[in-house]
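Structure in, sequence out. Go:
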């Protein structure tokens, strides 16, 4: 019997993929409407995404097969959804991020900031969080975490290395670097008769307590890296994929929205949210892993100066090993700054941007998008040489001259570009478009009309909690892809600004702090050892609550003037919202 269950478990992915479509067949058979057909597709894809029986990107391709066969959309219409402007922005942003990683510019930035901040416990924690959050705003959260965790452990190794030679001769382990509890054999002594007696408390207890403190600080340092990587990603439109999912869904569901979600508007809303959440996370980690002795946490106790100098020396040595800034690093830095400036000034909203002035359409809106800018800078990186232009000898072919390589080459891009996310984004946009075309969105809107009696802040808060819980077990991209079209329909049904629920739920999808499987940064930190699931769950639970409260504050205050949330927008009006007055002020909405 046990062997039978083991066999079923071993083949669980195959069984799910083959049996799940059959179990769901009664829905389209008993209710032969386009709405039911679309619901069948969405439920099937949602369950496959949750179980990961198939790769996420493969499941995202299902609409190409199901929608044409069910008469929901033509194949040509479905395929267009897989390479929209948002996908182009994703690719262009990653081209720049890959160049930053390829030339080690991110490591230079990280080490330089750590040298400025110092290595006192609380400041060291803050320094790693600031650096990780800043880098994850521009490059992938996974790459940022993978780079920062080894640096953190190298610093901790020096910070807690015993300065005397006695412990080295006795074979003393470094409890922080190895992230293990001290061996119990070190706390006992043997007499000649073979009996084991504990070492007197006066000599053993201080060491055990110190080892415990070191282990706790190591756990805090590891968690601060993965948490700040997730928090930092919410600050920019390209920082994490759910943000791009939101932009794509808004543009797909509401084509006349006037590019309301762009790089500048998102940054104005999400960056203050990120800063507040990051500082609160730092305080929570400090209290949990360093205790309430803030004088000691900030290094005013006057002890362990040797260890701090040794840790500082490690960062200094790593920084010196990078050497002087190369031409390639300087070129990437300049192009990166140009990209950010162009993003901010293209169509900021509160003044005419260069996109409105140089490339306007008939309505005066910019015809150039954020994706256009990203691809433009990305292409330039394939043209700019990585060294000062000149001719050198080709080492493989003596006697021949060779030009320096460009900042980017296709081999590097092909290896580091997460192409699966492009398909995953496209699958989400196809789902949203299918919901609209089939009438499922309108049907959902009618069913959700009773929610009009619930105060909007309560709706937003409950939805944020639900999304934050759901994203612990499911990919954050899949979570936003599934929920955002439903939330948009709900908002239209109750005459609520769609962004009032879509924005906070998108941010909540990044609050994956409790489980190692919730997000790749958590898994990377957990793989280094020293952390139990209970450690991460206990720390992440309160951080999730803090995150939801901060997001609720953001959506009910400074987001109002940025996105005009006071009134129901004209671009969200449809036949399903005939009972709503365009531009009406919702009296149940909170006033900032």
């Amino acid at each position: 019997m046990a062997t039978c269950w083991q066999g079923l478990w071993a083949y669980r992915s195959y069984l799910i993929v083959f049996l799940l479509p059959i179990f769901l067949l009664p829905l389209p058979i008993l209710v032969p409407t386009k709405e039911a057909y679309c619901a069948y597709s969405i439920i099937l894809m949602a369950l496959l995404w949750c179980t990961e029986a198939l790769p996420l990107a493969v499941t995202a391709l299902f609409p190409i097969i199901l929608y044409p066969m069910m008469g929901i959309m033509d194949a040509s219409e479905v395929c267009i959804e897989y390479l929209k402007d948002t996908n182009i922005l994703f690719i262009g942003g990653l081209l720049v991020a890959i160049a930053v990683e390829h030339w080690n510019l991110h490591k230079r930035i990280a080490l330089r900031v750590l040298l400025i901040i110092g290595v006192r416990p609380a400041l060291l924690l803050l320094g790693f969080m600031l650096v990780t959050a800043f880098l994850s705003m521009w490059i992938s959260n996974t790459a940022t975490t993978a780079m920062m965790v080894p640096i953190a452990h190298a610093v901790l190794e020096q910070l807690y290395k015993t300065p005397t030679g006695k412990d080295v001769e006795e074979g003393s382990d470094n409890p922080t670097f190895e992230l293990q509890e001290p061996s119990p054999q070190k706390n006992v002594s043997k007499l000649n008769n073979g009996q084991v007696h504990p070492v007197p408390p006066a000599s053993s207890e201080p060491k055990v307590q110190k080892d415990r403190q070191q282990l706790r600080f190591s756990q805090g340092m590891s968690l601060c890296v993965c948490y700040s990587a997730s928090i930092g990603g919410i600050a920019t439109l390209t920082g994490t994929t759910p943000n791009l999912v939101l932009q794509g869904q808004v543009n797909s569901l509401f084509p006349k929205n006037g590019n309301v979600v762009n790089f500048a508007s998102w940054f104005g809303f999400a960056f203050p949210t990120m800063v507040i959440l990051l500082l609160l996370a730092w305080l929570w980690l400090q209290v949990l892993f360093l205790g309430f002795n803030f004088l000691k946490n900030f290094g005013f106790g006057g002890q362990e100066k040797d260890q701090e100098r040794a840790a500082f020396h490690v960062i200094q040595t790593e920084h010196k090993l990078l050497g002087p800034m190369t031409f390639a690093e300087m070129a990437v830095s300049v192009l990166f700054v140009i990209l950010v400036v162009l993003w901010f000034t293209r169509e900021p909203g509160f003044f005419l941007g260069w996109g409105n002035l140089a490339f306007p359409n008939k309505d005066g809106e910019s015809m150039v998008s954020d994706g256009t800018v990203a691809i433009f800078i990305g292409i330039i990186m394939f043209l700019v040489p990585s060294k000062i232009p000149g001719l050198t000898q080709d080492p493989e072919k003596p006697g021949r001259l060779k030009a320096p390589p460009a900042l980017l080459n296709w081999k590097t891009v092909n290896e580091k570009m997460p192409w699966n996310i492009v398909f995953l984004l496209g699958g989400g946009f196809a789902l949203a478009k299918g919901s609209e075309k089939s009438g499922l969105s309108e049907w959902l809107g009618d069913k959700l009309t009773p929610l009009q009696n619930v105060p909007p802040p309560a709706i937003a808060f409950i939805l944020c909690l639900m999304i934050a819980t759901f994203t612990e077990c499911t990919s954050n991209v899949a979570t936003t892809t599934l929920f955002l079209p439903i939330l948009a329909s709900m908002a239209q049904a109750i005459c609520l600004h769609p962004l009032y629920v879509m924005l906070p739920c998108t941010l909540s999808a990044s609050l994956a702090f409790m489980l190692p499987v919730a997000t790749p940064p958590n898994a990377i930190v957990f793989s280094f050892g020293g952390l139990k699931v209970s450690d991460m769950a206990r720390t992440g639970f309160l951080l999730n609550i803090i995150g939801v409260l901060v997001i609720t504050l953001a959506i009910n205050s400074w987001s109002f003037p940025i996105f005009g949330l006071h009134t129901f927008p004209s671009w969200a009006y449809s036949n399903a919202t005939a009972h709503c007055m365009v531009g009406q002020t919702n009296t149940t909405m909170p006033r900032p």
